[in-house]
Structures are given as structure tokens and as C-alpha cells.
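Milestone M4 deliverable, item 7.
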Amino acid sequence: MAPKIRRVTFTNAPVNVVGADTVVQLLNVVDELSKDERVQVVVFDSGTPGYFFNHADLGQVPELLALNGADGTPTWVELVTRLSSAPFVSIASIRGRTRGGGDEITLAFDLRYASLEEAVFCQPEVAIGIVPGGGGSDRLARLLGRDRALEAVLTSEDYDAERAEKYGWVTRAVPDAELDDLVNGVAARIASFDRASVLGAKAQINRSTLPPVADLRAFPGRSSPSRSSGRDSRRACRSWARPSPRSVSMRSSGISAITPGSSTSRHRRRAGKRGRTSMTRDRVLPTGRRTAVQRRELLTLAAMCLGVMMTFLLITATISALSAIQADLHVSPSALMLAHATTTCLIFPAADRQPAHTRQHVGQGTSPTS
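Output delivered:
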């Protein structure tokens, strides 16, 4: 089984920052492993306690931005796309902090298993005045859903392994003592299957889940700090990230301890409740709907005012007519007042104005002609 499985260990003490030399060397390792038709599974881990692939090395930012391929594609983008499409299954065994550019590399691995006690994830670019430039936002949106990806990227908060698993950031989070057995078991099981079938299934899933390569290459300079905030960005980075040497130690070797195990016969990806959220959201009408509602309310108020005016005019006309009749026919004032009251009752029904126990009395009132 050893020829089918390889292990790549990243060590850049004290905090495993990712520099330009790291990107170039890691890309060379991926190319070398891709050419070996015996390789079916590659496990990536860290040799620095407390850190997996960390953020970019601030001392090598100019070198990182200057790394481009012959066609102008940033080498960092080339690395993450080659990792995802590599002719082997990549498995990340995550212990420690995984931030920024290191998290973008981690998101490019096919499977990500994290230590509940040790793993921490973060995309801190927005907090320091830049944007994710190596596919972090593109991949998180597909894994977490739009709203949770926005939450992760815009807040730049640390996510522990438990919440990362719930959101779909990682494949699975397990107690640290169980991590090695889980990773080794999954690697051994995948390596035991037909290579063509494994790679064919991976290619099918890649087509429906990965961001288009053209999107990742669309903005070659999008990861660079803005001109106005570059100095502030670097100062903000230093406030939470310690500087580190640029030396990188990376090795590729076989794993002799892996053997197939029945206890790992079924390892399914745990997608979590993507696209859902437990937050209570206030319902706010869009501007267009608010305008329509306000228009209807104004029309209703205008109609009510018009109705009141028409009623007042009708009462006034009725009183004038009755006064004229009194003058012509010499009707007594008491009869005229009775006719006026009857007319008012016809306009404003007594049943709508008086309590229930008086309605019968009003309905039996004496007519003007009696």
C-alpha cells in the first residue's frame, strides 16, 4: 500500500507562514506527485505544533505578488487549481491555525479532517484591508453557502473546528487522539480501490462543485493591498502575527503504517445544515413595496376625507331644502326638526352609532308624515 500513498509535511517554524518559496516548492511537489502513476492518495500535515498552513509571510509579500506564470496567471492561483484537479486524492490532516492564504491552500484539498482541540480557521483579509485572492471566497461560498461565507470573510473571525464542521468548512472534526487513525484509515481505503474509478469520480464531483478556473484567474491582482491601505494593512497584520524565518522544510515520503481497516469502511462527508441559519431575521419591505403601501394609505385617507366632505355637503343641502319647504308650506318647527332627525338617521344608520340595547327603539321611530 505504501507506493500508493504519500505524505507531505510542511514545516516553517515558528508559525508556518506561507512565503513565495513555499508556493513554488509546493507546486513542484504537486507536479512531481502528479507524474507518478502509482500515487493515489497524498496526506498533507504540519511539522510545526499549533499551526497548519498559516497566512502569507509578510516579509515576502512583494515576492508573492510577483509570482506569475507565462500566461500571467498568479502562481498562487495555479497552485490551488492544480491541487484540486491533481490526479490523486489530497487529504489534509489539520492540527493548529489555518488562516488566510494557508486556508485557501487547505480549501483546495479534496478532504479536510480537523482536530477538535487544535484546529482554527480564518480568512482575515478584509480586516487588514485586502480581499482573498487565492480562491478563498469562491470556495467558501460553495461550501458554506452565500450568507455564511459572507459572515466568515467579512467578520474575519476565527472559527474553531466544531463550528467549521457544522458550517461545512471541513469534512469532519474529531478529537485529536482520533485524527491520525481517521486520516490513515480513509487514505488506505481510497488507495485500495481502482485508481481510474477514483479519479473519474473525483472529476465528476469537481465539475459540479469547484469554482470555474476562469473566475479564479479573472483578477490577477485582487489579492494585493490597495494603494491607500497597504501600509495600514501591514501594520494591522503585525499586530496579531509574529514574524518568522523564511526557511521552509518540506518532504515527501511513503506512509508505512497505513493498513486497511474495517472500522473505516464508511466515511461519509458531513455536509451540515448548509444554507440554513438559526438567526432570527427582521422582515424589511423593499423600497418599492414600501412606496406602494404608502401610496395605498394616502389614497385611502383621501377617500375618507372626500366622503366626510360629501356627507357634510349633503346634510347642508338637506337643511337648506327643509328650511325652504317650511317657509313655503308653513310647517311647524317641531315637524321640521323631526324630518331633520329622520334624514340624519338615514345618512348615519343608528345601528352603527348606538349600543345594541337602543337599536330597536331607533328603528321604531315615528315617521315625519304621522
